[in-house]
Amino acid sequence: MTIDTDNSHLADDATTPTVAGPAHPRATTTLRPLALSDVRLGDGFWLERQRANRDVSIPDGLRQLHDAGNLHNFEVAAGRADGDVIGPIFADSDVYKWLEAAAWEYAREPDSSLLDDQLRVTELVAAAQESDGYLNTVVPRREGERYGHPERNHEHYCAGHLIQAGVAQKRATGRDDLLNVAVKVADHLVREFGPRSATGSAGDVDGHPVIETALVELYRETGTRDYLDLAAWFVDARGHDSLERFGGNSTYLSDRVPVREATTLEGHAVRAVYLTTGATDVAIETGDDALLAALGAQYDHMSATKQYVTGGLGARWDGEAFGDEYELPSDRAYAETCAAIGAVQWAWRMLLATGEASYGDQIERLLFNGFLAGVSLRGGDYFYVNPLQVRHDAHADEERNPKNGRLRWFGCACCPPNIMRTLSSLGGYLATSTGDGVQLHQYASGTLRATTDAGDLELRVETAYPWNGRVRVTVVAAPEAPVTLSLRIPAWAAGATLDGAATQPGGYARITRSFAAGDALVLELPLAPRITRPHSRVDALRGTVAVERGPLVYAFEAQDQPGLVLDDVAVDAASLSEQAEASVAEARELALPGLVTVSLRTPCGDALTGIPYFAWANRTVDDMRVWLPEG
Ligand code: FUB
Ligand code: ZN
Questions:
Q1: Alpha carbons 130 and 417: distance in angstroms, whole number
Q2: CA-CA-CA-CA torsion for 77, 81, 83, 85, nearest 10 degrees?
Q3: Which of 155, 158, 217, 414 is an active site residue?
Q4: I need a labelling partner for 343 at 20 to 30 A (CA). Which of 43, 305, 352, 385 fits?
Q5: Residues of the chain with pLDDT under 70
Q6: What's the pLDDT score for residue 4?
Q7: Which atom of ligand 1 sits closest to the CA of residue 208?
């Protein structure tokens, strides 16, 4: 592995503006996010994924938006094309998510064509906006009226994604083009809804949250308090069955229980986690500790009872929804990629607010497994649904069925551009600062700079994580006064050491002292593969085991087990071992430098080879299992 030792790409104070990332609180939080421009990934695992995102996913995404008609809809709304609008009612949102991805990607590595593409699409979006700020290409043309069906029409949802894209473009490029459109949309919403509504629509919330978190971020960017007030109002207006009068289902729409009274997440998984993400933003900015505590309890309950080992959320295809407690079937798992993304966003905000390492653990589990399985290694192919088992005779009954393999796009294409924006802004989720130091939450090679009360601290991280558990942190520049370096020790990392000293898993190892350029710390996270057993209440998994190694969950694909029928195998958990070089010819074809496979034996002595779950279905789409019966 080559290590990036060049720090020149970190923002130069004199010339390069600071680029805030997707969630940048105004209020004081326990931990402060680093600016995107102060984090730079170096060669290694996540940079490979970002490169595929830039080289394949983002350019292909723009073509797909054209071919699927999303851009045509804007042409129609702008009066530049004739014809009907095409696609789902929320088709606009995919354009906005792509714009957000392109903006963060531009911040990561500026490039004129990336900027030109964004500005071309932005100009089209602006041309489609109505004079009072309303902007939706599909709803008025298909439904004939605005806001007639908030339970299904996604008008606030689309506005939310537009606002997020506008904020991203402003932060990443310094340009106001899309932000101006977003502000007009937000001002329109302030007039139409919430505490300042002048038009009598005050009772309505949208069927699909995201506007909450978007409005808070717009408040953070502009300082306009109305946006925060409206977001807070939307959070509190939820949970009163108000969407039932339009025919909506309160459970599905997260409208059955007020957010601050809820004890769990229910209904449509993406909607539910987007809502709690926005509610966390509101709690942060308004200092609402009671709301934050309620959200923390909901997160704990969700992760303890409704989350797959991959981090995946939403057990039911029916309603793309959370199931009941411990309802976690492997084969019919829904685990939509967008739900994993929403949970990363929520966990990140909870981490900023509380400083609790468990949220860092959550982000790691989600990113390496439930999220990353959603995109192919080459980029440009996507899973919408992420099961933990595909049976031998599985039949691809419809587009989202993973038996189809990853697809280049979907009729409902929410996941692909969501993956793109997450990968291009990934640097923002790795580290934070406080007055007295820096906290590393995720391990990836690269460089970062943080401001502490004592002065700026610049670090270089070198690691082959997740294949190897050694993380070397070298001080590039430090203030003279002592600062604290905090490194997350994942809950699974029993036996981890920092500079040879034992650490406590499930928290942060901290070192406080004066540092000088060239000083280094070495974290050793033990990555021996481990057997994980399910909770006894998960009937679908009783008697099975899964394999994890460090942050990675492993999957067993039929193509790596010649002569065995995956549906019938049982394994001896005590036989677990790993191979540092992929020992199976097929696994080598994955082209994952550093790949570590794992091996389990059947009671008869046959060996099974496991590959990381995120990499499954990158060769052929085959039978696959994460949980295997113990024999
Ligand atoms: O409703 C918009 C998006 O489509 C949701 O977030 C996804 O779950 C999919 O239903
Ligand atoms: Zn999705």
A1: 25
A2: -40
A3: 414
A4: 43
A5: 1-16, 200-203, 581-587
A6: 36
A7: 1
